Amino acid sequence: EHGLDSNGVYNGTSELQLERMSVYFNEASGNKYVPRAVLVDLEPGTMDAVRAGPFGQLFRPDNFVFGQSGAG
Question: According to its record, what are the GO cellular component terms (predicted)?
Fold first, then answer.
């Protein structure tokens, strides 16, 4: 959707898309982008699922906030 591959490198073709990249992503070293996000959940398993997904490695580990047990 934003033209990023799973390593955070921009591979898109839209100049407008690249101009607006800073709305949702911060540029890191090596022309890579990381999501501007804080992920919060009561269950650590949900965060594990995000990390295990195809774009999970893009998220900074310190942006995950979770409880030690679920709500139920």
Answer: microtubule
The string over 27-65, giving b where at least 16 C-beta atoms fall within 10 Å of a residue's C-beta and e elsewhere, is eeeeebbbbeeeeebeeeeebeeeeeeeeeebbeeeebe
Greatest extent of the chain over all pairs of C-alpha atoms, in Å: 46
* Residues contacting 20, CB < 8 A, separation 6+: none
Average pLDDT per block of 10 residues along the chain, 72 residues long: 90 89 92 93 90 93 84 59
